[in-house]
Amino acid sequence: RGRETARNRLQAKIYALYVLSLNGSPDLSTMAYWRRYAPENLSNDSRAHLAGAYFYTGDRLTAREILPTSFAVNIFPRESGGNFNSTLRSDAIILSVLADADPHNPAVYQLVNRINKAAQGGRWGTTQENAFALMALGKLYKEKSDGTYRGEVYLGKEKIAEFDSTQDLILSDPRLAEGKITVKLNGDGECYYYLKSSGLSTRTDLPEKSTGIQVTREFLDRQGNPLALNKIRQGDLIIARITVKPEQPGLENIGIIDLLPAGLEIENPRIESRESISWLTQESVRPDYMDVRDDRLILFFSLPKVRTYQFYYALRAVTCGEYILPSIKAECMYAPEISSFSSSGAIRVVRD
């Protein structure tokens, strides 16, 4: 743990030198110190940042000497805290520096290919990966010639829009979800497009999935008994129990989103102890941050140990009717492959 902390501190120092140099205020003495005494302790992305710091001072020779000698993929797990290091983040940082300091380096194509292949659904896994990847690729694409083009958008066989390279086109037509979309282009320019959709499923039997962490939600009555979800009485107090079980220690920045069905409202977002509920035998774990909204409860936790964590809060059944019960979801913000969703279904609120 100490070595990891020291490494993160060193990364932050080298990145600060990079930013100072980029801003036109290089700290040459500190740069020279790390260049001489700690090159073997620097990760490849930190070496790239130090090389970039020298490049922005005009010292291109030193910058190329410091650049990593090998750009072979260095696979390591995503950090859920600290500096949020990951394999993709490292590749993107190196590519960003190469795009400035050595754009014709044969490794540029190799890094671009790795970064592009790592994208899923038009994005990468975390905020930092997206930021560094877009910055690096943007530097390279900026050097491409603009060119011009004209285009058409078809929904099935019907043309629904025309566009050209002079301005952006944004379509918000609900019919886009109803059939096959075709984009036709003429010209020598490059056109970039994307499609974004969102919504909630109306299914009540969504499959549950857990990878690296497990989260579940239960609704209980005042006595701690499981609640019959098909006949909740209007006005009843409901105790929600969220159970989280990490499969590895040291997880940070775990976000839990508990979407509520219509008909229920949060009454007490935190039940502290058995003083308020006689059957509660375990303290409700304290979140690092909590956001209470009309339709959901959002929690953030740090989970240092592999054990069972439980959080309790109170709701009130306020409106009669039949409602979809959305899944509860847990995800590690900076390692999104660690995620879980479960406990979907349906509820019915009836008059007393």
Quick summary of this structure?
The protein has 352 residues and is of the alpha+beta class. The protein has 7 helices and 16 strands.
With strands numbered from the N-terminus, the spatial order across the biggest sheet is 4-15-14-8-11-10
CATH names the topology of the largest domain as: Immunoglobulin-like
Percent of residues in helices: 25-40%
List SSEs in N-to-C order: HHHHHHHEEEEEEEEEEEEEEEE
Specify the structural class: alpha+beta
Runs in which pLDDT lies below 50 for 5 or more consecutive residues are: none
> Major sheet, described briefly?
6 strands, antiparallel
- The whole-number mean of residue pLDDT values reads 88
CATH class of the largest domain: Mainly Beta
How far from one another are the termini? 56 Å
Q: At the fourth CATH level, what is the homologous superfamily of the largest domain? A: Alpha-macroglobulin, receptor-binding domain
